[in-house]
Amino acid sequence: MAEPGLARALLVALLVALLGPGARAYGTYEERELVPAYGIKVGPYDNPSEAYSYFYLPFCKGEGVKADVQDEHRKKTSLGIAFDGGRRELTGFRLPFAADLGTEELCTVHPGPRDVRRLREAVLNDWFYKLEVDGLPVVGFVGHVTTDDAADGGALEDLALGRAHREPELVLYRHVTFEIHHNGPHVVEVIISTNSDTAIRVPSQGDVMDPFTYT
User: How wide is the angle at C-alpha 176 spanned by C-alphas 26 and 183, nearest 5°?
Assistant: First the structure.
């Protein structure tokens, strides 16, 4: 069985090709100037036409970032994005141009019943999210369902021994790594990746989640 990380990397590459034709960066930056990251949409991979705003899921909002984004880098929702079912909404990622970034805490989420229900739906149905960093689309997955051989073997053992069948584990990616490549004062490529080693189980109602982080 293919590793979830490898399979998702291939899917992400395909989604970028499908969702971001003709995209281009449009900013000029000085060193350490903030590069804004906009949330565009979320939805199921198998049905890209079913789209919701990025903050349909309990992701971290960007109120604390807004004041530090230069006016020339502020962007509104374009007609093309609206037709694609999305909207531009500033996220909380603080991405300094041409500067190293350590592990940063984005926010801590205290999910309510609706948040838990939506996160479970997103992971069970293989949802992706789409960001836009300086006009360049980047796509990642919300999480995954554990279906490795060890888990399958455990389920068969439970059945053989008459034990209650264990539910599959729903895993949420809470850490995102950004790679921002530049040529002079311009952003030319943005890549994001997730690491299952830092993933957490989708919370139950009332749980306090580990903070969302990024590098």
Answer: 30
Partnered with residue 188 across adjacent β-strands are: none
Q: Please name which of 24, 10, 40, 14 lies closest in space to residue 189, comparing C-alpha atoms.
A: 24
Output the pLDDT for position 6. 53
* pLDDT per residue as tens digits for the range 58-84: 999 887 787 777 655 666 666 666 666
Distance between CA 105 and CA 142 in Å, rounded? 18
- Bridge partner residues of 178 (DSSP): 192
Q: Which two tokens stand for residue 31?
A: 């060193």
Give 188's pLDDT tier (boundaries 50, 70, 90): very high
